[in-house]
Design goal:
61% of the residues lie in helices and 9% in strands. It is mainly alpha-helical. The chain has one domain. The radius of gyration is 20 Å and the shape is elongated.
Length: 66
Amino acid sequence: IIETLNNVPLVSFTIIFFYFVIKYDYKNLFKSKDYINSLNKTLKGFNLYLDNKTLKLCLIGTLRKE
């Protein structure tokens, strides 16, 4: 393992490769309409929803002041 860590090109390529693979997979996951609809059904119980365009978590209604 230590010899592998000293191989800078190999470690750099591996890190960059996994970064792009994970980024691509998550980007496609959140663009899926079925996933967003399912997530919004779950979040509705907490008065939240996920905006389709900006992928921001939004609040339904207003906050109650106690």
